[in-house]
Prior knowledge:
Order of helices and strands: HEHEHEHEEEHEHEEEH
Keywords: Hydrolase, Signal
Signal peptide: 1-34
Number of domains: 1
Strand order of the largest sheet: 1-2-3-4-7-8-9-10
Number of strands: 10
CATH superfamily: Glycosidases
GO molecular function, one term: hydrolase activity
Protein name: Glycoside hydrolase family 25 protein
Family: Belongs to the glycosyl hydrolase 25 family.
Amino acid sequence: MPLTSPVRVGAALARAVVVAALAAVALPATPVQAAPPSAYSVAGVDTSHYSHGEHENERIDWNQVAKAHGFAFLKASQGPGAAGNDAWFARDYAAVARTSLRHAPYHFFDPKSTTDGAAQARQFITVARAAGYRGDRAGELPPVLDVEKVRRHRKEVCPAALRPQQVAVFLREVRRAFGVAPIVYTRASFVKECMSGDGRVFAGHRLWLARYGSRAEEPQPVPGAGRTWTFWQHTQHGRTPGIPGTGDRDVFRGSLAQLRDLAG
């Protein structure tokens, strides 16, 4: 039997490589279907004074909440001054700490100047410590920084004074105070619209991402942050036994045992 010409063999191999490459471009792998919130076994809530009924004067039954949830994030403060302290935080924190809920305070980043990152951190640290939060006690999740649009003249807008370096200052000061890297609450669309698509300041921090919608698709990656979400806020209009009216609902990307490991 005559041997095949080496030239023909080489040409055939070259054509095969080209065809395979074109096929890979023309026929991308089918993306994995995102899981709905119900696919995650550990649910949680986040609250503020807005969670206390229409007139903000109704108590939350935290024992009731704890029956079906694993964690809670509580708003402690907003902006650089005491005027932004949440009126219900101290009472809610004390009540949550007596339940099985893993918990942590959060601060709403609301810059009044381009240089008040440290002042916001001090305000948050003071309020959290006064309520009894230390960052390393059993049941305590890492503290949280909430970075999103702010309300100005009844509209939600990008914070005009937002600067990544001031966010970095806040994160550094809070980590120094509590000995643990803060969790960051934000969303991909905010980073794209309000931070020029650059979320590198959040790199190295666990992410709590918001994404809503009728199909409740999983949160999109934050550009530059370098990791996926750990917590997902999937609705603002959920109903939770023990909490007046409707409010935020969340899930944890992991098991209850993993949540416990993260908490203190």
